[in-house]
């Protein structure tokens, strides 16, 4: 970890928390405008979409997109719709991930999961609707030129799908249940299931801002490590924190014999690995250090997060 005095580190963490709160407010306002109202027909689907979308998530992926775009000089207004689209895709993935046929969970973001509240069929439709709406939102974003829209749609689709993205990661995760996995297999799962969408958030922000090829390569290295760091810390929190802190069922990965870092390596080795990945993420930012203060602080924030 880079040298930093305790007061400065605390100030940076406070800055990140303020930035995340501001992003959450802007993203929530835009999401409210983009997503059909609960009273719009079909009411059941729209209520379910909003139940999951406005359940108090951190909006980390949209915030990372906004932070990256800001680092390369983009205006927040030009980034906001794509940021919202990423949150729609993330929320759809959580709805489907919680289904009985997948992770079978009944608690998400501190309240009932979508299928528990509205039934399995409606939850599936709500997830599908959020997924498709996300691409409509990007395609209809008139703040972006046609070329940029196509690049961003391609970027997000690749990260959400297969063989490079989130769907592939979910499949790898299901295939790994109740069997021993290698360290390489575990990292493959995490880099796809969680990391792909985080990587896309950073890359999309850089693309919209007009980052150079070298800058995009550097931000890709940063985001790839940040995504892995996010999941390692998530694995650690699952075995160290309560349901009240996490907003979801703790210890479920172990009971389901999921492939996780603590299960494979133990707590201490997992913490060491998180530290290594955090350092790698920060090192990738050296290529454009003057603009990277917030992005570096975000990596610090993820490394030290408790929920």
Q: How would you characterize the overall build of this protein?
A:
- A hairpin with a 2-residue loop joins strand 1 and strand 2.
- A two-stranded antiparallel sheet has the order 1-2.
- Helix content is 72%, strand content 1%.
- It is globular.
- The two termini are 21 Å apart.
- The chain has helices at residues 6-34, 43-53, 60-71, 76-97, 114-118, 120-139, 146-160, 166-176, 183-193, 195-209, 213-240, 243-246, 252-255, 261-265, 267-284, 293-304, and strands at 107-108, 111-112.
- The model has no long low-confidence stretch (mean pLDDT 92).
- With 307 residues, it is mostly helical.
Entry summary:
By secondary structure, the chain is mainly α. The chain is 72% helix and 1% strand.
What is the overall number of helices?
Answer: 16
Share of β-strand residues = under 5%
Number of strands: 2
> In which order are the strands of the major sheet placed?
1-2
Mean pLDDT: 92
Poorly predicted sequence stretches spanning 5 or more consecutive residues: none
């Amino acid at each position: 970890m880079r040298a930093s005095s305790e007061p400065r580190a605390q100030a940076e963490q406070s800055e990140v928390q303020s930035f995340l709160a501001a992003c959450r407010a802007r993203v929530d306002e835009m999401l409210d405008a983009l997503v059909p109202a609960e009273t719009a027909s079909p009411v059941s689907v729209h209520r379910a979409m909003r139940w999951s979308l406005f359940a108090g998530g951190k909006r980390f992926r949209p915030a990372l997109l906004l932070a990256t775009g800001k680092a390369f000089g983009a205006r927040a207004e030009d980034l906001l719709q794509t940021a919202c689209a990423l949150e729609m895709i993330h929320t759809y993935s959580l709805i489907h991930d919680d289904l009985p046929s997948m992770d079978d969970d009944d608690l998400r973001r501190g309240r009932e999961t979508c299928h528990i509240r509205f039934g399995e069929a409606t939850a599936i439709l709500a997830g599908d609707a959020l997924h498709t709406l996300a691409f409509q939102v990007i395609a209809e974003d008139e703040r972006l030129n046609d070329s940029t829209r196509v690049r961003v749609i391609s970027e997000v689709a690749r990260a959400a799908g297969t063989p490079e993205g989130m769907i592939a990661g979910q499949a790898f995760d299901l295939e790994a249940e109740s069997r021993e996995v290698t360290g390489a297999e575990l990292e493959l799962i995490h880099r796809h299931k969680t990391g792909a969408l985080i990587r896309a958030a950073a890359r999309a922000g850089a693309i919209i801002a007009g980052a150079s090829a070298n800058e995009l390569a550097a931000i890709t290295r940063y985001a790839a490590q940040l995504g892995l760091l996010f999941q390692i810390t998530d694995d650690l929190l699952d075995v160290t924190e309560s349901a009240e802190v996490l907003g979801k069922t703790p210890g479920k990965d172990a009971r389901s014999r999921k492939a996780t870092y603590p299960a494979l390596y133990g707590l201490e080795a997992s913490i060491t690995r998180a530290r290594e990945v955090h350092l790698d993420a920060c090192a990738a930012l050296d290529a454009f250090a003057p603009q990277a203060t917030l992005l570096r602080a975000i990596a610090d924030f993820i490394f030290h997060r408790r929920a």
